[in-house]
Design goal:
heterodimer; A: 202 residues; mainly alpha; B: 176 residues; 8 helices; 0% strand; globular
């Protein structure tokens, strides 16, 4: 049934329903092994694999799944593997997708920690890391600026952002408190940007 | 040993639970748990681990959890830290996913979660401040960061290449 690929081409765009647990595991294993740079770097490859190449989901289903995973805590790529696997094949498929996504990371990090980390004390490696550290900071600043454009839709968002940052830096508030406060502001006064079918008001 | 393993699991469970908005937004909480309150890893090693987590495949938070867990308590530590960080998603994603698939979208919940965005952004900026304290030590490091930002903005250079260039710059600036 699931091998009948031509049939699915007819149902334009509708996701092909049932990949096997093994297929899901292997796809997420591949994504986990070949994407460097964290969750946001993994998304294009996930989309390529499960939307374009295998047609397990259409673009709309993909974005909907992504929307749910982005609003839940935890590593995004992990949430996505879990939820996409669950949607496509039930709980067992979800768990195997998750396992596939983290297995390559786990093995590569273990190899690095066991065999390579001992060279960190070497003078040249120390010098190299002194050069790498500012790059890491630059990558975070870049991510903040790029995400900031998407995340801060209006003046209210900007003010909240500055307020939270001030509370974090000056009062040294716990990050969890800031997350809770952020969710609370959303409940109390939902963002006005997306009201009843109206266009984006940018 | 068992207490350390349990503490690792618990720390990473909290990191996973409050880790909204991806790897970078999770860094301040991770730093608080791992470096400040427990002193398991020193600040310099922490930022170097983040650099390695960035350069290796997979989610940054998972990589960092595995790495820190191994450094603190060996293989068992690596396994328990990784399980700790994925347990909150395991507990939350499936029930919420099930609800959403079943009852379609809950607008109010969705809006509340969008309200988190400014908070997430403030945590990412805080991560830059926290790690910057260790990374920005002299004129050379500010120069490397500034050049990196320019390359990111104008050439969209891949992070891996930038990190390799950073390593080369470090060896030239500090190695001899």
């Amino acid at each position: 049934m699931k091998t009948d690929k031509d049939k699915n081409e007819d149902k334009k765009g509708k996701g092909n329903a049932h990949p096997t647990v093994l297929e899901l595991f292997l796809v997420f294993l591949k994504v986990g092994a070949f994407t460097i740079g964290g969750g946001y770097a993994m998304l294009p490859l996930i989309q390529e694999e499960i939307v374009h190449k295998r047609r397990w989901m259409n673009t709309e289903e993909f974005l909907e799944t992504l929307g749910i995973t982005q609003s839940l805590p935890g590593p995004m790529a992990i949430n996505f593997a879990l939820l996409a696997g669950y949607k496509l094949g039930g709980i067992r498929a979800g768990l195997f997708s998750l396992f596939g996504a983290i297995l390559p990371s786990f093995l590569i990090i273990m190899i690095t920690a066991i065999y390579l980390w001992q060279y960190r004390d070497n003078a040249i490696t120390q010098a190299a890391f002194k050069g790498i550290r500012p790059v890491v900071v630059a990558l975070i600043i870049f991510a903040a600026i790029r995400l900031g454009k998407e995340m801060i839709g209006n003046r209210r968002g900007l003010i909240l952002f500055l307020f939270f940052l001030g509370v974090l830096l000056i009062l040294r508030a716990h990050p969890a408190v800031i997350i809770a406060a952020g969710a609370l502001t959303g409940f109390l006064k939902p963002s006005l940007g997306k009201k009843a079918g109206g266009g984006p008001h940018k | 040993m068992t207490t350390i393993l349990f503490a690792l699991f618990l720390s990473f469970f909290r990191i996973g639970l409050f880790g909204f908005g991806g790897g970078y937004a999770m860094l301040p909480l991770m730093e608080l748990e791992i470096v400040q309150s427990r002193g398991w890893i020193n600040p310099f090693e922490f930022i170097d681990i983040i650099a390695v987590a960035e350069m290796t495949p997979g989610a940054i938070a998972i990589n960092a959890a595995t790495f820190v867990g191994y450094r603190v308590a060996g293989l068992a530590g690596a396994i328990l830290s990784t399980i700790g960080v994925i347990t909150p998603p395991l507990l939350l994603v499936l029930p919420v996913g099930w609800l959403v698939i079943r009852y379609q979208k809950n607008r109010r919940l969705e809006q509340a979660l969008q309200g988190i965005h400014p908070a997430v952004l403030s945590l990412i900026v805080l991560a830059a401040f926290v790690l910057g304290g260790e990374a920005m030590i002299d004129l050379q490091s500010y120069t490397v960061a500034a050049v990196s930002l320019i390359l990111l903005f104008y050439t969209r250079m891949h992070p891996i290449i930038l990190i390799i260039l950073g390593a080369a710059a470090g060896i030239i600036l500090y190695g001899f």
